[in-house]
Amino acid sequence: MAILEPGCCDTDNALLRKILLALADVANSVPATSLITVADTVVATPGTAVQSASQVATKGVYVTAPVSNTGEVYVGSSNVDKGGPRGITLVPGGMAPGFIPVDNSDEIWVDADNANDRVGILVV
After folding, report:
1. E strands present in 1-117
2. Model pTM?
3. Is 10 a member of any domain?
C-alpha cells in the first residue's frame, strides 16, 4: 500500500486514514507479545545530531515531524547533519517515506534547523 501519493490532497483526511490503516497492518503483523512504543527525540542544539532513545524494535520504525516544528529536521545515522546531504529531510508535519527496518530506535539520529524541534518515532 502506498501511503504517500504524488499530488495527494488531504482535504478529507484520506492521507490520515491511509497512515492509520498502514499502522494497523504493521500492528497486526507484530506478535502479540511485542509492544508498540513511541519515542520522542528533541534537538537542543541545531548542528549537533541527537541519538534517539533506545527502544528495541521487532520490525523497525516510522519517523514523523510534528506540525509544531518551526523548521526542517534531518533524520539519518550518526553522521546526519543539517548542513550536509546526509539523511532524510522532513518538513513540519512530514513523515519519512516508508518504514525504516532497524533493530533499535537508537540507530536513528536527528538534527534540525531550530532548537527544540523534534521527531516522533513509532517503534514496532
Report:
1. 37-42, 50-51, 61-64, 73-76, 88-90, 109-112
2. 0.71
3. no
Contact predicate 115/44, CB 8 Å: yes
The answer as to whether 16 is a domain residue is: no
Residue 66 in any domain: the answer is yes
Please report, for the chain, how many H helices and E strands are present, in that order.
Answer: 1, 7
Q: Which are the contacts of 89, defined by CB distance < 8 A and separation ≥ 6?
A: 72, 73, 74
Structural domain including 44 reads: 36-123
Amino acid at 57: A
Q: Report, as an integer, the average pLDDT of 74-93.
A: 87
Contact 39, 124 (CB under 8 A): no
| pLDDT tens sequence across 88-101 | 999 999 999 888 99
